[in-house]
Amino acid sequence: MRTNVVRAKVQWGETDAAGIVFYPNYFHWFDNAAHAFFRALGLPLADLMKQGIFTPILSAGSDFKAPLKYDDDITITSAITEVRNKSFRIEHTVRCGDVITGAGWEWRGWVIKESGQLRAVAIPDDVRCTMMGTQRS
Predict the structure, then answer these.
(1) Which of 28, 41, 50, 115 has the fewest beta carbons closer than 10 A?
(2) Which residues are catalytically annotated?
(3) Burial code of 94-106, b = ≥16 C-beta within 10 A, e = fewer?
(4) So what family is this one in (predicted)?
């Protein structure tokens, strides 16, 4: 299973009136981490979009375990844990030091745009192998 790590610092605008990270920001971090992961795989999502391939989020969820505050240094570790025919799952773990502050997941589709319509298609074998870090046989 391939993983990717993104480092960030909690920004002032990501906190709420209580001074802790407002939960929707986790989903923003997850999305940024997914884009960074695909760049690291050599499959930048921006390049895929130019080819008419999109990876829309089909479902997502998260658990929040400990608060984060302004200026905390965080790491987001992402892993593609499952690849199906037309979709894949990315799991994310957010840490501040050794403390897991949140974990979440995204199911994304593999979609093409034809004649203005989106249609799910099979993930190519070479892309599937790249996602999972396996050799094509």
Answers:
(1) 115
(2) 16
(3) bbbeeeebbbbbb
(4) Belongs to the 4-hydroxybenzoyl-CoA thioesterase family.
